[in-house]
Amino acid sequence: MRPHLGASAPNPALAPRGSGFVTTSVRVGTAPTTLSTPRIAGWAKRYALRLSISDTATVALSIAASHLLVLGANNLPIGAAGAMDKVMTQLPLSLGIAVVWILALRLMDTRGARVIGAGTTEYKRVVDASVATFAVFLVAAFFLDLDVSRVFATVTFALGTVAVVGSRWAWRQWLLAKRRSGQYSSRVVLIGSEQSVTSTALELSRNSAFGYHVVGVGLSDGPDSGLLGNTGLPVIGGIDDVPSLLDSYGADTVIATNSDHLPAERVREISWGLDPQRHQLMIAPSIADVAGARVHLRPVAGLPLIHVETPQYEGPQRVAKRIFDIVGSGLILLGLLPLFFVLSVLIKRADGGPVFYTQDRVGRDGENFRILKFRSMYTDADARRAELVAAVGIGRGLFKMADDPRITPVGKVLRKYSLDELPQLINVFRGDMSLVGPRPALPEEVSDYNSKERRRLVVTPGMSGLWQVSGRSNLAWEDGIRLDLYYVENWSMTGDLIILWRTAKTVLFPDGAY
């Protein structure tokens, strides 16, 4: 059932985590009124101020903590004779580092409305600002011949970077909570054809992370009043009426969707009617499931060309991923050996059956392998599968039941916390699987794949992935495939680390596991 997007309830709008919906802020053509960068919306201004205060306090506390750690390492408690003299000697340098650091966070636009709230750009810019500050410090120390403790400098920048990133993460959780209640979001009017506006609205409604709240639409090929189909969104007027109606709906953003009924010339004319100090125009191009890092806007002879980088599956990144898999799985296996022993005893004592369960799965390039799991079902589970399928029915994909009678009491606990999947670390170490990747498919699934779905097989399947951290068994099979394909097209080491972090949260606070 499609979600209802009516204006009667808060409707945050944005691409889902991992959807790849792309919006590009552009300046369209030349006109009597130039469309410049809009004034920061009220919510963004307030939030940026909070971040500024938080960053200043975090940097100051990190520098102070570094002094304490260095003094402690030198066996000089803060009250000891000479301790404060050392601190006061370094005070001008500490103040200089703090000022440059805070200025770098400002100049690198780490608090910009377009980077806060979702994605990794905000965190990357924070790290870049910290690295730039460290570089300035090194240059100043060299040319000014400063007498500085290398231990103090290293501890300060390492601790400060982690602390600022951590505080930004905490503020993001606060912001997301506000956005889920409809606050701290841009108010958006979508324009374009009925079909393109509807699909864009539904896509934007999947997640509130980026903070776009759709308040109305303007159609190029439909009525200028009423509601838009089953979305419940109000049609506020014709496309030409939208600029003059934005203030009536409290909107600050216009998103032009891809449509044959909305040519570039018309979009440019609409941009002329926008107040550059209060409104912004964004374009939703007809590409989806592409990560922002792969998309680059390149103006050529007045044309805003969008360059989409081709995903790379070979070379240094793949080698780095394999090394990470070997080291990571090896260390985790060593650390979990006691847990493996305990779980093996519990499974064996439950019914005397085998500890492990193996099954054929399809890996990279369509090669089959045997996946390992702790056995969570009774030994006759496979024989009873046909009976259950006939009773409850099955669509495409894996057969799963919320209350599967074949699962043992021990197996229920194993599945709830994903402990049954730990032996797959052996598959990762051997190279059959990766720590992160698409879900390993069954041979009978692959035999039904169309050409698009077979794209899942160009990378190594993983123990965890976007599917597993986005709802697991609660997801429809089609949504899981879409998330896996997004991963295939946009994978990166940074993305893998984020998925592993989310995996830890999912295991500790399980939802959708059965």
UniProtKB/TrEMBL annotation:
InterPro entries: Bact_transf, EPS_sugar_tfrase
Topology in the lipid bilayer: Multi-pass membrane protein
Keyword Transmembrane helix: yes
Main location, first listed in the record: membrane
Entry keyword Repeat: no
Domain of life: Bacteria
Pfam families referenced in this protein's UniProt entry, alphabetically: Bac_transf, CoA_binding_3
Transmembrane segments: 47-67, 87-105, 126-144, 150-171, 326-347
Ranges where the Bacterial sugar transferase domain occurs: 321-508
Family: Belongs to the bacterial sugar transferase family.
Protein name as annotated: Sugar transferase
Organism: Naasia lichenicola
